[in-house]
């Protein structure tokens, strides 16, 4: 927390006090949002209804701030089995249109990854539970908490009847965890409409790389998600009656997946490193300046040993080199116990995190050719089908843009420190989409601590991060306004 | 059907005529038994009560034959949720104890697999329905029909007041589809009691490999079921935030599973074939004599191509060579959709079908050493644990034992043909348990045709198989008695 002596003068002081005094209300609202199982990943009608309900709740909240909210119909999602599900509407909201103020647009999402208590959650994932200042629950840090922190900041100005230093826009979607279906099309359509007056776009959908030190993010990796299906027939077999005479699809699939990456993490697809940007001297210095205690990082990650020992190697392999992960297999036996099945049709899933200047369609071709070669060598009678299910470009920003300066100053005000200048190894496609489509600058301004566990069991956001993050956004408004007056 | 000219003289002639004349009664009794939903797989009180009722019906029927029936209490089944259900009593019944006659013990079971009409049954699974000579219903072929065929054979002798050529014993259980709980313990206890006077044990719980040609079964494969766990930590990781710096458990596991079997189905665990019995010339001739249309078999299996082209190679790889199947992975992403998870802890599952004279503990050591070697070469920081979760011995009978000779002669009498001498590629632990525990010879004498669909929808037994099977058992009694007089 900041000490009284560093309190900024004027309206911000009152805003900070308001946020501190109303923090329990803010936590309560987060609890209400977490209670909605807005899982966009599992394509089932019940969850899709919950997701639509979540978008409705958020729209109501934005209207409560006085914003004009457009709930834009986003059409339908086609499932592979021929069914369709509605895509939740995308919210476009605006508050203020003073031409003398800069316009800051916040992007966030309301959908979450799947979570079930039996997967290893210590509390019900959809009941926000506070333990030692940690707010556990699915979506607390990814991304419901940060969306609400931005709303909290705005609501503090409104409640105090203070003039908002900036015009505010919101772009809120419900399909981020499923590839942001329909978003790009909308952004393209609204380039000269909703986005024309925007000065910069803020995304807060990542984490710091520390538990206490804030960070700014200037790049993210892309992702090519592949499925490789091997099919003998649609029905499964019994291993007693067919074991020994079949090209078993699982044996083929395991060989295919085993050909992708070696034990040192190096991707074995020929040519894959051909377009990776070389490391510059300046870049090396940015990595050297980052505050990371490798030993503490390793311990907090609960990992016995990483593939690399130095800070620079670790961070570069997370942020600026590609990586390949095998996620799982659909169609095989996955439950506890011992079932003697020969799966008839299995689908392996893996993805490659992409970095500048890898080209997605080149990667797609390289992967397909490689797997076809490996499969052909097996001389199997099964059918193999490789698909790139999802392709998302990497993103990199110019860190001398205004919003980076404003964010640095706001961080200094609230946290009393310089931020780590980092990238994110994950893929937040919206950054690249928004930047390319709107031609506006994008900044990633994360609130969550490194140990928040987004996408995994026991996801949480610290109460401190959530509340100080709300203040950070308020301070950011003011710094943007100050910089704007000197434009 | 047999023609009049091949009718055997004496009592058997009358028995066969009796069976033909009373076949509708026999079908009616099967209908009454099928009407009892004696499902032992779904552990719910209603079904367990039905199962107990079924055992009671069978005990009454055996008493009606004049048998002394002991209904042996088998205790309780512990369910994983802490509940208990009664295990149905095991029936030990005997009819006749003439020391001049051989004693033949029939093993059968009264429980069935689950069945619901909406799973794809064309008729109510618990209402026996005859269509074109096929008797559809759950349990018709597995195993109520064969149990009743044995009872029909005995009842024909009794009704005609003919002297039974053999002493008869029955071992009838109600938990076969759920691992034959409590059976092994009882058999062990009764080795010197109930089983001491037994000359051979008959099991009729499999199928022919043809629609019309009878078979005798002289072997079944065993099974060693393995789990191999690779663990980095209990929680999963996000591939964006950790992809590139971890020894990912899935990469390790895929490499381990990929080291087990090659594309031609050959198991790669060193030494695994060391104890597989060599193929003898006599054995080759047994395989050559088997009636199997490979093309029809392949088509009905809906498989594009098998690993082998000839009948002999196919059957040997199903019955007398080991096979390894990879069943699946627990802990990885297995659902539809695209989840970018790095599973933190994954458990691969595979099993090896064992054949004579493979030794389960040797196989366990070979598999563990192999996987430890493969894992050590990867230099991974993860933890690997290999366990043999389940081990079931293979079984093989001596086909020159009396009961095989008697069965062949009985088949010749009833069907006018030599039987296919076959094995079963699956694991039927009861044969091995009975043989090892009682030290008595076991024979598998199936009645059902290859297309009976045991365990699946629209299970049936042909009226012809049921009625001629009753005759077959009667003829078997007589052949056993004849052989006995020459012992």
TrEMBL record, chains A, B:
InterPro entries: ArgE/DapE_CS, CNDP/DUG1, Cyt/Met_Dipeptidase, Peptidase_M20, Peptidase_M20_dimer. GO terms for cellular component: cytosol. Pfam families: M20_dimer, Peptidase_M20. Its cofactor is Mn(2+). It comes from the Eukaryota. Residues 219-374 form the Peptidase M20 dimerisation domain. Mn(2+) 1 binds at residues 142, 177, 455. GO terms for biological process: proteolysis. The keyword Metal-binding applies. PROSITE patterns: ARGE_DAPE_CPG2_2. The record marks 238 as: Important for catalytic activity. The active site is at residues 111, 176. Binds 2 manganese ions per subunit. Mn(2+) 2 binds at residues 109, 142, 205. One of its GO terms (molecular function) is carboxypeptidase activity. Keywords: Carboxypeptidase, Hydrolase, Manganese, Metal-binding, Metalloprotease, Phosphoprotein, Protease. Belongs to the peptidase M20A family. This is Carnosine dipeptidase 1. It comes from Bos mutus grunniens.
């Amino acid at each position: 927390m900041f000490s009284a002596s560093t309190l900024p003068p004027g309206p911000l002081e009152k805003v900070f006090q308001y946020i501190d005094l109303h923090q329990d209300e803010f936590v309560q609202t987060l609890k209400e949002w977490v209670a909605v199982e807005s899982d966009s990943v599992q394509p089932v009608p019940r969850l899709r209804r919950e997701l639509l309900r979540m978008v409705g709740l958020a729209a109501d909240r934005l209207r409560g701030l006085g914003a004009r909210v457009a709930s834009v119909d986003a059409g339908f999602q086609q499932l592979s089995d021929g069914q369709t599900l509605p895509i939740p509407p995308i919210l476009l909201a605006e508050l203020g249109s003073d031409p003398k103020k800069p316009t800051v647009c916040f992007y966030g999402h309301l959908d979450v990854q799947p979570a079930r208590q039996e997967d290893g959650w210590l509390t019900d994932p959809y009941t926000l539970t506070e333990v030692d200042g940690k707010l556990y629950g699915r979506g607390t840090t990814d991304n419901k908490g940060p969306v609400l922190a931005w709303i909290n900041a705005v609501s503090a100005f409104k409640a105090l009847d203070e003039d908002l230093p900036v015009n505010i826009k919101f772009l809120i979607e419900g399909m981020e965890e499923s590839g942001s279906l329909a978003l790009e099309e909308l952004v393209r359509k609204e380039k000269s409409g909703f986005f024309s007056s925007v000065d910069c776009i803020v995304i807060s959908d990542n984490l710091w790389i520390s538990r206490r030190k804030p960070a700014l993010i200037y790049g993210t990796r892309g992702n090519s998600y592949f499925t490789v299906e091997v099919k003998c027939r649609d029905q499964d077999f019994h291993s007693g009656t067919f074991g020994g005479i079949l090209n078993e699809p699982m044996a083929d699939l395991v060989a295919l997946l085993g050909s992708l990456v070696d034990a040192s993490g190096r991707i074995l697809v020929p040519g894959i490193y051909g377009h990776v940007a070389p490391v510059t001297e300046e870049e090396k210095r940015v990595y050297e300046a980052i505050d990371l205690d490798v030993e503490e990082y390793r311990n907090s990650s609960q990992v016995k040993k990483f593939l690399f020992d130095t800070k620079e190697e670790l961070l570069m392999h997370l942020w600026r080199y590609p990586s390949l992960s095998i996620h799982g297999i659909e169609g095989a036996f996955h439950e506890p116990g011992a079932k003697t099945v020969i799966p008839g049709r299995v689908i392996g899933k893996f993805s490659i995190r992409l970095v500048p200047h890898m080209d997605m369609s080149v990667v797609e071709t390289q992967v397909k050719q490689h797997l076809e070669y490996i499969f052909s060598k097996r001389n199997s009678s099964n059918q193999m089908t490789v698909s790139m299910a999802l392709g998302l470009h990497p993103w990199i920003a110019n860190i001398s843009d205004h919003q980076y300066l404003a964010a640095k100053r706001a961080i200094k005000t609230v946290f009393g420190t310089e931020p780590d200048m980092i990238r994110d190894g994950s893929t937040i496609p919206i950054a690249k989409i928004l930047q390319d489509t709107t031609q506006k600058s994008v900044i990633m301004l994360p609130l969550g601590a490194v140990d928040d566990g987004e996408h995994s069991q026991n996801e949480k956001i610290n109460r401190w991060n959530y509340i100080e993050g709300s203040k950070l956004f308020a301070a950011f408004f003011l710094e943007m306004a100050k910089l704007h007056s000197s434009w």
